[in-house]
Specification:
The chain is of the alpha+beta class. Helix content is 34%, strand content 26%. It has 9 helices and 13 strands. The protein has a 5-stranded antiparallel sheet with strand order 11-10-9-12-13, with helices on both faces. Strand 6 and strand 7 form a beta hairpin. Helix 2 packs antiparallel against helix 3 and helix 3 crosses helix 4. The protein starts with a strand and ends with a helix. The model has no long low-confidence stretch (mean pLDDT 96).
Length: 270
């Protein structure tokens, strides 16, 4: 079986190289020929592989490959829903429990959101969490204690405001593959309200409760994910869902390698 590992041409660094090479080696051990192609190369790629493992967020490219009849994992739709935190929230709204969230109204240009922010603060209280709708590794996420602090983070990029959950510096990440939890870790950061390992969080192996398992599986199913990393706060609230979570951190914490499990899910699906 021949596949493509789609990566971003402009996102470089040792941790990304290590991840990509790790997935390639996992494929080799399963007699799968997996070649790395970046999102620049793939616009000019005329071959038709058996599948594409899309480890990027270039949704337009993912849709283009699907239009050519190539199976893409995860799908363009699922990647788009997970990449935009507002779309993630809205898709899961009413299906799974989440922190109370208010999405900033659309504007064609940078505008004065003071009135909106004041109303949001009345509803959500302070402190609250400011999140730009696009971002990874906890970037563009801020804990705000005043209206002025919230306003200082607003740019021309879409954002949302979210209820702050006490103990938010601790969460659990469940890796779901094919409707099963294959690994889980608890993350805690003593120096930051964000639990992300990139920001100093420390991960340890974790055994999820049955409720956490059901919550994570339901979130992935609603978002259409064949595999995904689900972050849960306070054992009951879905915080974020990742269509291509950084599985090396998970492996380092738990000793469980999700790469061959993801590849097996793909080969079983196609």
């Amino acid at each position: 079986m021949n596949g493509i590992l789609a990566v971003n041409a402009y996102l470089k660094g040792e941790k990304f190289d290590n991840l990509h090479n790790h997935i390639i080696k996992a494929a080799e051990s399963m007699d799968i020929t997996l070649k790395i192609k970046n999102n620049e190369e793939l616009w000019f790629f005329n071959e038709k592989p058996d599948f594409v493992l899309f480890w990027d967020k270039d949704v337009n490219l993912a849709q283009h490959l699907e239009n050519r009849g190539i199976p893409v994992f995860n799908s363009a739709r699922s990647i788009a829903l997970c990449d935009d935190k507002a779309k993630t929230y809205l898709t899961l709204e009413g299906a799974v429990a989440q922190p109370e969230t208010i999405i900033a109204p659309f504007s064609f240009f940078k505008t004065d959101y003071t009135g909106f922010v004041r109303k949001a603060v009345e509803k959500l209280g302070l402190p609250l969490v400011f999140k730009e709708c696009f971002g990874s590794f906890g970037e563009q996420v801020f804990l705000c204690n005043t209206v002025e602090e919230i306003l200082s983070h607003i740019t021309d990029r879409p954002f949302l405001l979210q209820q702050y959950i006490e103990g938010g510096n601790e969460d659990v990440r469940l890796e779901i593959v094919g409707g099963k939890c294959v690994a889980a870790m608890k993350r805690k950061n003593e120096r930051d309200f964000r639990s992300n390992i990139t920001n100093g969080g420390v991960a340890t192996p974790y055994t999820p409760t049955n409720d956490e398992f059901k919550l994570a599986v339901k979130a992935c199913a609603v978002l259409g994910l064949d595999f995904g990393g689900v972050d849960i706060l306070d054992h009951k609230l879905v915080c974020e869902v990742n269509s291509n979570a950084h599985i090396i951190n998970l492996m380092n914490a738990t000793g469980i390698d999700a790469a061959p499990l993801i590849l097996r899910q793909i080969t079983d699906t196609i």
